[in-house]
Amino acid sequence: MVTVVDDARRLVPRTDVVLADPRLALAQARLGRSLVRAAVHRAQQRARAGEIGPDEVAAAAVTGLPPLAASLTPVLNATGVLLHTNLGRAPLSAAAREAVGAAAGCTDLEFDLAKGTRGRRGAGMLATLATAVPDAEAVHVVNNNAAALVLAATALAGGREIVVSRGELIEIGDGFRLPELLSSTGATIREVGTTNRTSVTDYAEAIGPRTGFVLKVHPSNYRIAGFTSRAEVAELAGLGAPVVGDIGSGLLAPHPALPDEPDAATWLRAGAALVTASGDKLLGGPQAGLMFGRAEMIATLARHPLARALRVDKLTVAALEATLAGPPPPVLQALSAAQPALFNRARQLAGVLAAAGIDAAPVATQAAVGGGGAPGVALASAAVSLPEALAAPLRSGEHVRAGRHHAVAGRVSDGRLLLDLFAIEPRDDDALAAAVLAASHSG
Hints:
Elements: H1 15-19, H2 22-31, H3 33-48, H4 57-63, E1 75-77, H5 94-103, E2 111-112, E3 117-118, H6 123-132, E4 138-142, H7 145-157, E5 161-165, E6 171-173, E7 176-177, H8 178-183, E8 188-192, H9 200-206, E9 211-217, H10 233-236, E10 243-248, H11 264-269, E11 274-278, E12 289-293, H12 295-303, H13 305-309, H14 314-325, H15 330-335, H16 339-355, E13 361-367, E14 379-387, H17 391-396, H18 398-401, E15 407-409, E16 411-413, E17 416-420, H19 429-442
Parallel strand pairs: 1-15, 5-8, 5-9, 9-10, 10-11
Antiparallel strand pairs: 2-3, 4-12, 6-7, 11-12, 13-14, 14-17, 16-17
Helix pairs in contact: 2-3, 3-4, 5-14, 6-14, 16-19
């Protein structure tokens, strides 16, 4: 006798049948066939495991589609760290985002529309950057600040010496260290002084015929306090060798909230021949290495063969120009925010959440610049205090995976989850509240 086994797995629809569903066919035009097909396969596996019925495969595949064709997930930065490297540092302004969208297609990146001939690459961006720092005779842009230092070391000190204080031989993050970075260019590091004290005399005694330049590095991710001394840019500029200054965090001019943070204009006026900075830190723009300095030095750097390998793409060109020409970006707006206003926002958010039955309260906090900027500087802020159990679902709950809400990254302190508003734009308060409500229902 033959026994017929009723196996629901045999009823699971074929992949091509599911892909023909109008919803999934439309999704393929937006996401691509491979991502949609993967969602279908996951749904089929659930049906074979008995988690859903065979007739639910198409709907489950639709629900399991990723929100974007890229795997990066939008995150609301409620950590209280304004420039969080793990979260991509500076969020772009609305003007910069719009400029990136406009530049995503074909654009006149290095084409003169009036003449119909090749033009200077990123001419508008470079002109805007030069206007922002009039103390610079010329400017150049590469893909990050480390690249700017590599280009300077290669073009100005290849086979020669770079004189630098031992107290400024920093590790820049992810295990990369400045001495190794510079040595990779063929330059020799000439260390002077000690970790906590380096004088002008230390530099003067090291400068000689083999000196390519003197490097002055702002230790933007740590502080040395106590029995210390350091030589300033103006003192070093009088020693006869060109001074290259790495301000790191990207201020173009002094900022009242960060009086001890160096800026490009001040170091150039003090006599630096070249100043380098990051574009995605306190400037509030895209990742880029900004270079300001003497015309002949910038020309040497821009025409060096390595400059071609380090140049920025059209999206960076667009975002950087819009950051400089447009309204203040979110980073600068955050630095100007008053603590009472932040606390009032926290109180309003906590009220909304408490009305929905969530244990929420406004609290005063201290934020930080982060991202290798203004170490040790505490910035008055405010946060919404929530149960710690909400931390995980806010980061990666089902509502986040499905793209219905932003992920939210906060910080845990004394058994409570703090959603700090320092780096949250006011326009995102409603999105933050909605994400918390969704996370509270996910359990």
